[in-house]
Design brief:
Elements lengths: L3 E5 L8 H13 L3 E7 L4 E3 L2 E6 L5 H19 L3 E4 L5 H9 L3 E6 L3 H5 L7 H18 L5 E4 L2 H8 L5 E3 L6 H5 L13 E6 L8 H8 L4 E6 L6 H7 L7 E3 L5 H10 L2 E4 L13 H8 L4 E4 L2 H7 L5 E4 L4 H12 L2 H17 L3 H14 L19
Parallel strand pairs: 1-2, 1-5, 2-4, 5-6, 6-7, 7-8, 9-10, 9-12, 10-11, 12-13, 13-14
Antiparallel strand pairs: 3-4
Length: 386
């Protein structure tokens, strides 16, 4: 009988890279039966992962109030050996599952209390209060859970104080995805100067400064991701530099790889706000895996960890002129571009890859008494949640 693992999220998309492509697929590869309770349009099994759909809600308050209840009901029906949830709003669900005698892991993607201090949809005078409440709920919930998985070492160190069974499973790239890309090497013959940013697009992630940086140049900026809030898009279109932008909206993995293939440089200009000072954006490592040099914020934590790789040009993310100079310096020196890209690729192959993190994840599951064997997991769904 297969050991059953259920992942749960009420916030992330069904094909979230960390949840679906990395964690769930890794579990399938190691012989687990994997369920995924998440927002989706239908029940189906993809790559061996049984997706149990949660409804979509336009309003955030309905999502927060209704989805966790549905997720808890569906989770109990599955009778899995372990439940692995991914959102702070699912804390009560995790605690209830523990009260029903289940093994539960909380996966912490972000330093949520710090992140809340920069949430545009929370009134500024309420952010500290909400942040304090979330911090207290996390601390209380950690008393119950069998283990905590975090996405960075910094967050791990915070949670170790609340739950000794905490491990960091870093959000590094899947090398197998990049192996088939056949990315361009040196780009001496390229006539177009293309840079790219792929990810959530907000003011705090440097989008205004980036657009100002390409203003008045022949540099094309490829943007892919959701712009938030929605009003920001109209504001960006009024910028003079917007004429240099090709905006793709939210894209799937294949389209993201296509954009990376065409770009000469990857961009990551997060502002130095609390939630960014100790994060490790996945896009940095994906640019490296794609052998692309990077222009990134001069955040001390990033410089300390990655500065010695000689694959990143660090700049002041609040200064469009310095950003422009760093981009132009790289584009005008294709030998350096190629060398930096190869340095980053080497580092990902040797250290910063999901394959090494996968082993940590499986070993962590085994430490909780959850075992499996590598066997064929193709199967039919036997329980309906429609």
């Amino acid at each position: 009988m297969l050991v059953s693992i259920t992942h749960i999220s009420t916030v992330h998309p069904a094909f979230d890279v960390r949840i679906f492509h990395k964690e769930c697929r890794s579990l399938i590869n190691h012989g687990f039966k994997v369920n995924l309770i998440i927002s989706h349009n239908k029940e189906e099994t993809i790559d061996g992962i049984h997706i149990i759909p949660l409804p979509f809600f336009e309003r955030r308050i309905k999502r927060i109030l209704i989805k966790p209840i549905l997720a808890f009901i569906y989770a109990l029906k599955l009778r899995s050996n372990l439940y692995h949830f991914h959102d702070p709003e699912l804390m009560p669900v995790g605690i209830m599952l523990k009260l029903f005698g289940k093994k539960v892991i909380y996966d912490v993607h972000e330093d949520v209390p710090s992140q809340i201090m920069d949430k545009h949809w929370i009134l500024p005078h309420l952010r500290y209060f909400v942040s304090t409440i979330v911090k207290a709920i996390e601390k209380f919930g950690c008393l119950f859970f069998d283990g905590i998985v975090t996405a960075t070492p910094y967050v791990k160190n915070k949670f170790l104080k609340m739950n000794k069974n905490t491990i960091d499973i870093n959000n590094y790239p899947l090398m197998i995805e990049f192996a088939g890309l056949k990315l361009d090497g040196k780009s001496k013959d390229k006539k177009e100067k293309i840079i790219c940013y792929i990810g959530a697009i907000t003011k705090a992630r440097g989008i205004v400064e980036l657009i100002k940086a390409v203003e008045g140049t022949d540099i094309k900026l490829y943007l892919a991701g959701t712009i938030a809030p929605r009003s920001l898009l109209e504001s960006l279109k009024k910028e003079e530099g917007w004429k240099n932008v090709t905006y793709f909206g939210q894209v799937n993995r294949n389209k993201a790889f296509s954009i990376l293939r065409k770009a000469q440089i990857g961009i990551c200009l997060f502002h130095p706000i609390a939630n960014h000072l100790n994060c490790l954006p996945n896009k940095l490592f994906e640019y490296m895996a794609a052998s692309r040099p990077i222009v990134a914020s001069s955040i001390p934590y990033w410089k300390k960890l990655l500065g010695g790789l000689e694959s990143i040009s660090f700049v002041d993310p609040l200064n469009p002129e310095k950003i422009r100079s760093a981009i132009q310096a790289l584009i005008s020196d294709q030998e350096k571009c190629h060398s930096m890209g190869q340095n980053g690729l080497k580092a990902v192959k040797e250290i910063y890859n999901w394959e090494s993190e996968e082993k940590k994840l499986i070993d962590f599951y085994k430490s909780l008494g959850v075992f499996s064997s590598r066997i064929d997991v193709n199967r039919e769904c036997v329980t309906s949640y429609e």
